[in-house]
Amino acid sequence: MNLSYFISKRIHKTDENSFSSTIHKIAIASIAIGLAVMIISFLILGGFQQTIKEKIYGFASHLQVTKYTLGNSMEEVPISKKSDFYSNRESYEFIDHIQEYSHKAGLLKTEDEVLGVLLKGVGRSFDLDRFQENIISGTFINFKDSTSSTDVLLSQRIANRLKLKTGDDVVIYFVQNPPRFRKLKIVGIYETGMEDFDDKVIIGDIALIQRLNDWEEDQVGGFEVYVKDDGNIDFAAKSLLEDLDYDLFIEKVSDRYIQIFEWLTLLNRNVVIFLALILFVACFNMVSILLILIMERTHMIGVLKALGATNGQVQDIFRYNGMLLIVKGMFLGNLIGLGLGALQYYFQIIPLDQENYYMSFVPIAWDWPILLFLNFITFVVVTLILVIPTMVISRIKPINAITFD
User: Fold this and answer.
1) Above 90 in pLDDT, residue 343?
2) What are phi and psi of 149, to 5 degrees?
């Protein structure tokens, strides 16, 4: 057996009421608290990013294909569903789903209120599975074969402003020449928590917009493209751009809602800085604690050196001791961090103001590679920093250490 490791284990088992035992507990607690805070921070950060991205992607897809336009008109230039891109969509392995859509501006009018909205027309290809969790009451649109459906979904914010509910009728006036209006039936209420959507968008039948715009049945305002892996969005956008017709334009949703994605990037930077600060504090604590343990064991160090132990062997004793404290602290830190994360994940104990944070409770995302990395970086950094306090041992002279009190 390694002599340094053997002695380290023996001195590690101290009396529960001794000073060394207290120092050991402080070291374990400092590592445990630091690692638990880092784990919880990354669980929450991942939850925020994942939840917000899923809300945006579920409502607006990963990529949007539209017609090139030179003006700022609200009216869309139609695209034919017979275009090569849409007709050959099965040939793109990275595409998960494509659905058509169109937008039309209008005014919702009730007896007491008038509100400007944007009607988003969707068809039977709409991926309801991605959007279903946002529907808080009612049902989705019932599409008809022979005519356009008058069913619509309103956001909870719009419904509150206009004092409407599921089952009510509402009149919408469309801004065009000549002006037109339609009586719509509210079949559902949705809520994403994203003000860019909830403040102005209502969802209806794309056939209604096609009739209002005098479009052919195969003409739409654009296509929403979902990719199989959202980490490949840039690759998908580049690949599609090379094959699109010259008059078509592709836009990443992350560019359209760039302010939200920049905010998520800023959160990443803040957490990295926070990680560095926590590691610094943990390292500082371990250096201080190991120096105290070395001072407490000065007499032992002198005896070992007098018996022929090298500086390296004595240093290894305290490095092993420090590593045992780190392992115990990491075990406790994982237990606390993962335990608190699981409580929040399953029971949503901590609520949030949805208007400010886009969600009603603190989200948790289980990113196991990140959690393993946190454990790895904590162990490596704090273990390497143990070299600093053990360098003091090389300056301790046996004759002075044996008489040290």
Assistant:
1) yes
2) -85, 145
DSSP string, 202-252: EEEEHHHHHHHTT--TTEESEEEEEES-GGGHHHHHHHHHHHS-TTEEEEE
Which residues, 6 or more positions from 30, have their beta carbon under 8 angstroms from its beta carbon?
Answer: 281, 282, 285, 286, 289, 329
- The span from the CA of 24 to the CA of 336, in Å, is 19
Residues 6+ away with beta carbon under 8 Å from 313: 3, 4, 304
State how far the Cα of 380 lies from the Cα of 377, in Å rounded to an integer: 5
- Rounded Cα distance between 324 and 405, Å, is 27
What single string gives the DSSP state of each residue in 322-356?
HHHHHHHHHHHHHHHHHHHHHHHHHH--SB--HHH
Distance of alpha carbon 343 from alpha carbon 10, whole angstroms = 38
Peptide bond into 389 cis (omega under 30): no
For residue 266, give the H/E element and its range: helix 258-296
> Which H/E stretch holds residue 174?
strand 169-174
List the domain boundaries for the chain.
Answer: 3-55+260-402, 69-246
Which DSSP symbol is given to 361?
Answer: B
Q: Residue 53 to residues 32, 112, 392: CA-CA distances in angstroms? A: 31, 36, 51
Rounded distance, CA 152 to CA 228, Å? Answer: 29
Residue 202 bridge partners (DSSP): 119
Q: What percent of the chain is modeled with pLDDT above 90?
A: 47
Place of tokens 């300056």: 395
At 159, which helix (H) or strand (E)?
helix 156-162
Mean pLDDT of all residues belonging to the chain: 87
Q: Is residue 198 a contact partner of residue 155, using CB atoms and an 8 Å limit?
A: yes
- Average pLDDT rounded to a whole number, residues 225-231: 92
The span from the CA of 332 to the CA of 319, in Å, is 20
Cut 0.90: pTM above it: no
